[in-house]
Write a structure and sequence with these properties.
This protein has about 170 residues and is α+β, with helices and mostly antiparallel strands. The chain is about 15% helix and about 30% strand. It is built from 1 helix and 10 strands, in the order H-E-E-E-E-E-E-E-E-E-E. The strands form 3 sheets. Strands 1-3-4-9 form a 4-stranded antiparallel beta sheet, with no helix packed on it. Strands 2-10-7-6 form a 4-stranded mixed beta sheet, with no helix packed on it. It has a two-stranded antiparallel ribbon with strand order 5-8. Strand 6 and strand 7 form a beta hairpin. The radius of gyration is 20 Å and the shape is elongated.
Length: about 170
């Protein structure tokens, strides 16, 4: 009887872990630039399609990270980008959309961190964007991966010919 109880308990644990693992693989984000071998695992054919986009991937919502640059975005010319304050390995991709009122910036995050961006200063010649990685709770187990989400930042007025200055805040 005791053996049977242990076998049933172990079976339940295996089923629970399998279900969690399958769910995490289907929801795993695509690897970012330079990551090499990671890729997404497509959802199983038996999974019903989700009726709405997953949180954080909704197009047109400033501040919501996504993996791809929104359709219709235009790459910012290099002459309009000042990324000198960023570390050498930080991405330097900025796109505009919505008539230049939204910046789509490739950020960097890892483990339990989440990349955020805010337009800290906007004037007639430049827009300064602070890039930050919010860290997870202490004592929490986190993966050791690096992701490169695209973060949208709303501007008070269209960018026009202004320079975008990117700064990493710690």
């Amino acid at each position: 009887m005791r053996y049977l109880t242990n076998v049933i308990g172990l079976g339940l644990i295996v089923v629970a872990v399998s279900a969690c693992g399958a769910q995490n693989q289907a929801a795993a984000p695509a690897a970012g630039p330079g990551s090499g071998t990671l890729s997404t695992v497509p959802p199983s054919p038996s999974a019903p399609p989700s009726p709405s986009p997953a949180p954080g991937t909704q197009p047109g919502i400033p501040g919501a990270p996504r993996l791809e640059v929104p359709e219709g975005s235009t790459k910012l010319p290099d002459k309009q980008l000042d990324a000198a304050a960023l570390p050498a390995d930080y991405p330097r991709e900025v796109y505009t959309s919505n008539g230049g009122t939204i910046l789509n910036i490739r950020g960097q995050e890892g483990g339990c961190g989440h990349a955020t961006a805010e337009a800290a200063q906007q004037d007639g010649t430049r827009v300064t964007v602070n890039l930050t990685e919010l860290k997870g709770q202490t004592g929490q187990m986190c993966t050791m991966d690096i992701r490169y989400p695209v973060i949208s930042v709303a501007l008070a007025a269209p960018l026009g010919e202004r320079t975008v200055v990117l700064k990493q805040m710690r």
